[in-house]
Amino acid sequence: MTSDQGVVFDLGYQPHEGDRLGRRGAIFATIRDGLRRILGIRRKARKKVMPWLLFGIALLPVVAVVGISFFVDDIFSGGVDNPFAGHPNIFTITAPMFFIFSALAGPELLIPDRVEGVMSVYASRPMRVSDYLGARAAALAIAAGGFLVVPQFILYVGLASLHPDGLFSGLVDNASDIPKFLLASLFYLLTYGAPAFLVGLFAKRLGPAWGIYLAFMWLSAIFAVVITEATSGIGRYAALIALSIHPDIIMDWIFGRTTVREGITGADFGPMWSVGIILGVAVITWIIGIRKYRSLL
User: Fold this and answer.
1) Does the pTM of the predicted model rise above 0.90?
2) Lesser CB count within 10 Å: N end or C end of the chain?
3) Is residue 87 within 8 Å of 155, Cβ to Cβ?
């Protein structure tokens, strides 16, 4: 025989007494969570190893060389053969590290939320789909600054300190390099970040997502070089799928230098083709993300 009497349990519920930060607070909280996730902050030690190892490889050589430059006069000479000869050459060290970091970070920012079923938590906040995806992209962009921009600023100050008229004169004379390496960094971010996000939008596990991203970026470059060198005419358009080469072409164009890029340079496409392809991939990724996450938020 069942009883119709109910029982009330006092669980000590307390209403929220702090500031209600609203939509802006939710966005910044999502950015902070993304940075902690991809940098391994407040996570297990094994989650910290790869991001900080890659960051150290990107940063420490530049710091060391700038320090040595005070004792060795010609360390920044040598043209394209010297990776420390100027701002464009530094990207040969930092960009590959950010490429690997993007393979890890892009899926890490998106997959766990879906797989672990916490999207409803974000839906309970005053956030739009564009807010969530934009916050995740902002987290990757901030991390990209550490890989791509910070070493460039260190080199900028290092070169200025060697100026014959002093540090301040060197900073002023070389100031035109700042917008150049910032713009180049933006295209490296879009080139490596957008495909990583695209994989993260559909993959359900981190391991396969990392493999898919790395395989596509590497194999597409190899395929483009092979097809372009083996064929002529319409076959040269195969060079355009080599996403990893496009930011190098744009960087050369920004800094006004000419460098032979295997395969795609022989296809005789101008830098605006590379700009259009990178922006196109980024826009397509954003549109697909908005459409997919409308049913989740």
Assistant:
1) no
2) N
3) yes
